[in-house]
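A reminder from the course coordinator: this example appears on the midterm review sheet, so study it carefully.

Given structure:
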């Protein structure tokens, strides 16, 4: 899985030109058909899309190109999940958030539990991105909870990325900076800043 920008025409052009690097070996990715059709629930509608599949010209491994508006193994758009996380940090409970977003309470509970369980890891990860992207940052100010600290680190890192690399929605940056694995239940490492 490789997180790419949301502009499918630009991604396709980059893929055909050999400008995308293999996440396994750094080799040149080339078009290799399409992955299965997926559903992405956005705030107000549902989108069905078929992600592009690519193959490395060096190691021959394939990768699905997942747009940065999504997270790995999540039906809902990253921005919808981000809204739930922000509402939770403001004190809303899972039932309130589920009602606000028109999602099942169990789904929202799963997002919140996973984010809370990974909060300290996320603070470290997004702090490293924030420090790598801005020279003006000395340290992160402590917050009232690990969840609030994680959201603060996400805010700083995504703001720095948009300033340095160009504007992009916050939760698209989050997807890109975590390789889509913000709420994944695996121990795969997140992409590190270089």
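Designed residues:
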């Amino acid at each position: 899985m490789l997180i790419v920008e949301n502009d499918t025409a630009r991604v396709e052009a980059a893929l055909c030109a050999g400008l995308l690097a293999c996440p396994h070996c750094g080799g040149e990715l080339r078009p290799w058909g399409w992955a299965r059709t997926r559903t992405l629930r956005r705030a107000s509608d549902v989108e069905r899309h078929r992600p592009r599949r690519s193959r490395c010209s060096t190691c021959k491994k394939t990768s699905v190109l997942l747009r940065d508006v999504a997270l790995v193994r999540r039906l809902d758009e990253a921005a919808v999940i981000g809204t739930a996380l922000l509402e939770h940090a403001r004190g809303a409970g899972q039932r309130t958030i589920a009602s606000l977003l028109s999602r099942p309470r169990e789904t929202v509970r799963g997002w919140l539990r996973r984010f809370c369980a990974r909060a300290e890891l996320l603070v470290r990860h997004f702090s490293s991105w924030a420090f790598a992207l801005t020279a003006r940052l000395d340290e992160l100010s402590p917050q009232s909870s690990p969840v609030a600290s994680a959201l603060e680190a996400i805010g700083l890192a995504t703001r720095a990325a948009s300033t340095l690399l160009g504007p992009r929605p916050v939760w698209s940056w989050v997807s890109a900076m975590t390789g889509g694995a913000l709420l994944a239940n695996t121990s795969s490492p997140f992409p590190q800043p270089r």
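Residues 89 and 148 are 6 Å apart (CA to CA). Helices lie at 8-16, 78-89, 94-101, 105-133, 146-165, 170-177.
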